[in-house]
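Entry:
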Amino acid sequence: MLSDGTGGGVTPAPAPQTCHASCVAYDGRAVLILGASGRGKSALALKLMALGAQLVADDRTVLTRQDMRVMADAPPNIRGRIEARFVGILNGRPAGASPLRLIVDLDQTEIDRLPPQRSKNLMGIALPLLHNSDTSHFPAAILQYLKAGRSD
């Protein structure tokens, strides 16, 4: 149950949702990677894992709301597994349920050198949103965002 913020009562938490997304976490802070099939969700997750992130979920991510946080986790049947195209299904150390701190949308391409702050609403919570960047530093920038946030 959640407070409605008005002091007038308690509203039920939204039901868990499963979304077509991959998710990794660094130091307890997760990024949800959205995009159409074949867009590179697993590939970006693997790059982030190579930089030290832990796997939360690949391809299907279960979202739940706990108080004012959106939590991401893997369905039990795919926990600790990630697809690497042309390699196979790989094992990854599962992070477990992790609070989302960032969303990356691979279907949208960033055109601004210094993009405005964007957000996406998930389960009634506004979360920071980044659009896809085909730059080689994009995975490192996402990881740094998870570590220290954005300065502005």
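The chain has one domain: 15-146.
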